[in-house]
Amino acid sequence: MQSHSPLNFAGADSPAGHDRRAIGFGGVVSPLVGEMAGRPEGAFIGRSATVLSCTNNFTPSLLLVPSMPRRLLGLLLVLPALGVIALLFILPLVMSAIGAFQLDGGWGLGNFTKSIDLYAKDIVFTLGIVSLSTALIGAGAIAIGGYLTLGAHPVAVSILRFLYRWPMFIPFIVVGQILRTFLAKNGMMNNTAVSLGLMTPLDAMSFLDWRGIVIAFVWKQTPFVALLVAGAMASVNREGIEAAVNLGASRLRILFEIIVPQVITTLSVGLILSFVTMMSVLSVPLMINAQSPTMLTADIAFRVNAYGDYGVANALGLISLLLASSVAWIYLKISMKERA
Amino acid sequence: MGAFRPSLSVLWWVPRGIIFGLMAFFIFGPLFNMLLWTVTEKWYFPHALPLEYGFSAWKRVFEPRGGALESLGNSLVVAVLTVAVSLALAVPAGYALARLKLPLRSLILLAFLIPQAFPNLTVYVNVARIFYEIGLNGTIAGVVLVHVSHGLVYAVWIATAAFSAIDVELEQAARSIGAGAFRAFRDITLPLAAPGLLASAIFVFLESLDEFTGSYFVGAPDVNMLPLLLYTAGSGGNYQVASITALLLLVPSLIFMLIVERFLKADVLSRVGR
Amino acid sequence: MKKLSYAAFATVFAALPLHAEELTVVTAGDQNMVDYINQYLAPLFEKTYPGNTVRAVGTGAGDAGSQKIVERFDAQAGAKAEKWDTDVAVVHEKFVGPMVTKNYLDKYRGDIDTGKLVTRDNAKMALGTNVEGYVMPMFNSQTAVAYNPALVANPPKTYAEIAEWAKAHPKQFGYNGIKGGASGVSFVMGWIYAFGEGDAKVLMNGPFKEEETKKWDAAFKSLAAFTTNATLTPGNAGTLDLLSRGEIAMGPVWVDMFYSWKADGRLPPDMKLVLPAPGMPGQPMHYVIPQNAAHKDLAEKFVALATSPKVQAEGIVKRFNWYPGIDASHVKAELDATTWNKLFVDISPEDLATKGKPFPIAPYNTAILEAYEKSVK
């Protein structure tokens, strides 16, 4: 069996390819279960680097309904979901997005120039915060997933498996609240450090600024990406890894040279979903630091609540949408190119 | 990364212990903080721990008039329905996006991202307006639809990834021994994609449980959801009530996750036994 | 086409709206607003008018909560709904003007007996819009500066003294800017009242003149300098939070929030309030009834009960420690002196009368906020 992916290390050997099929048939092992059972193999989404980009390299015999044009069938399958989004979100969004171009006396870009005038700093700040958080989340997710996959000691692996998922279940507004009381100057973190004698009350400092927002985002989103990545890593072929181990490769090298390239798509999908989510979270910046500079969502809320100014609010919303989708777009283009 | 040389396993527990200890502190510290607030009567500087413990905030939350239980029930029903509808929509869509040739594929994928990418404060007024016009406001169905529009980004993107990851040859093999197209999908592809789909189900479930703005505009006052209570308490700094509400939301999420794990595990075991 | 697709959609997902015969009260504000209705007012109403039920919905603290009510009305007006799903709404003063201008509200005050118990100006004008007849004040709230007596023995009595104090005690004064809630906004408005070169009375009562907005440059310059020396807190609750953990010694707060934080044990009991001269703004929370409310008669009965002297005395003053909405003389008569005086432990009635100011009228309000955004960074 041939691998579809040029990046698929494991698939390069034919026995490995055979093995993959066996796993595919034999066990549906989720990342969750894979972790619970301590069994790293399983069919999860990150199996190959072609995730999200594998479409056209298979034979026509696969057609579900040979008589129906393939494009039409595809559209039919996508249409219900697309319809929900179009009617329930995109249409209402367009209804309000038009407002961004509406000025007192007609149409124009006045709201955008005002947005840039007042909030250029916040736009940069938002991008910076979210990019930094995304990078840290990615690093954390790789570390957690890597340890779950390669960790030698089963007890240590199960401790980590037990530990890492919890923050995922806490709603953002509570994340804001509990991290505010945790990270404050006299919050629980510093109090603990002081009572352990690690520092004096005078050294205590507050993290309730941009660092607080980054910490809150990383705290909440790392488990989400780690869950996806760990699942994908679990489905990476073991034989390739074991072969590399036998050749004396360090685990760190195995992680970055064998495993990460194979789960890069899952990682990217998880990070993009996180990036986009963080761009639109309001409660965290509001509860941790809503000062200047602050995140765009706080500015949008402020424009609406303080001025009833939907024009600038929507302009800021569109700017935020533009930033988020360009990141996704870049990813989609890269994955297309790789496929080609 | 602690365990590179298992032979030195005892020594390795030192760095492991430090790293796990720090992780535990940063993960459970804030959670413990939240737990403490749920039973706090008095807590202020310079006291590192609450001065007085009690359950008066619990009484406040569970007062029959407060409707916390009803809201919790609504939230659960809506979350489960949201997961069902999202998956029902995302499975065909994800399959098509992964396997079939689609025009404007990237744009379609981007479209699903929009509800998550546009700060939705200004959008829900319009959603509410449309829903008032068609009589969906104040209905469970209305709230589910709004949550679905948010959940679909996870469901579709992850489903697409999950289907893409499955070897086409497996389906081909099934077809070549005479299985119909739908059967091949049902018996081969779908079970293989199930773990990914179920992981996305967890995210959709969480997203629905946490959603506030849409729930307020479309649900309230007829269908009240728990995050409404959480938001009112949280935004005003009522730590006790907000923490209790968050705890209430945490429980179904954990149960849902356990069910998913259990379900999958049983499935795997039965396959192994066959 | 659009209509058609939605209709088709609706039939697919048709579900019966739950039409309960009950009065729906939607309230902005903190949890304690919902608690007030659920724990006190609603049971009382149901006892007074048997057979009816009340349900309360909270929309979140601060301006954002009131804005959500406005938007709810916007949506129903846009959808041309005949019967709105809100019977009584409780909103901040600032949002009443737009609601009246957009013709959302019923002019009901003349219909209820308690209507004549309110003579205060802020029941007639709301930030420059005439709202007479459309509103009944639920309670009056005031901003003031809270301080920790352990850290501040002699609290500053004026804005000028606050500025001096903050200079001498860097980062010990905290406020939440203008994006985190109205207590910070109020502090800023007070600053302009104190240091702006125009006439504060014009800002409060109008008329709006463009040239007035040019008179704040020096005030904003000093506020920017002041702010670099101060701690910026995350929101109204954030100021209280930092006060409670001793990270700041002083900061502007809403008096009602201050008391509820104390009552919930989140603030040390020895914290105190001071209302600095020349004064800080306060505002009432108003009961309003939408023109298209489904249960208008019942709604009027509800507001009449809520603004009766007995309820204002027992519920607003005694239980929740808020300044009454209707004229104080009617309420005071219902209470013993000790309970009444509890309202004025830190801030005397005289202080309140002389230093409790309204917010500037809407156009000045907007101009000040925008000027702040540009000059204090």
Structural commentary:
The complex is a heterotrimer of chains A (340), B (274) and C (377). With 340 residues, chain A is mainly α. Helices cover 68% and strands 1% of the residues of chain A. Chain A contains 13 helices and two strands. In chain A, a hairpin with a 2-residue loop joins strand 1 and strand 2 (106-107). The radius of gyration of chain A is 24 Å and the shape is flat. Chain B is mainly α. Chain B contains eleven helices and two strands; from the N terminus they run αββαααααααααα. Chain B has a two-stranded antiparallel sheet. In chain B, helix 4 packs across helix 6 (140-164). The longest helix of chain B has 35 residues, at 239-273. Residues 266-274 of chain B have low confidence and may be disordered. Chain C is an alpha/beta fold and 377 residues long. Chain C folds into two domains: 2-140 and 284-344, Periplasmic binding protein-like II (D-Maltodextrin-Binding Protein, domain 2, 3-Layer(aba) Sandwich); 141-282 and 355-375, D-Maltodextrin-Binding Protein, domain 2 (3-Layer(aba) Sandwich), CATH 3.40.190.10. Chain C has helices at residues 2-12, 31-48, 62-78, 96-101, 159-168, 182-195, 200-205, 217-229, 235-244, 255-263, 296-306, 309-319, 328-332, 337-342, 349-355, 362-375; strands at 22-27, 53-58, 88-92, 125-126, 129-130, 136-147, 174-175, 231-232, 250-254, 272-274, 280-288, 323-324, 356-357. Chain C starts with a helix and ends with a helix. The chains are: A mainly alpha (340), B mainly alpha (274), C alpha/beta (377). Chains A and B meet through helix 1, helix 2, helix 3, helix 4 and helix 5 of A and helix 1, helix 3, helix 4, helix 5 and helix 6 of B.
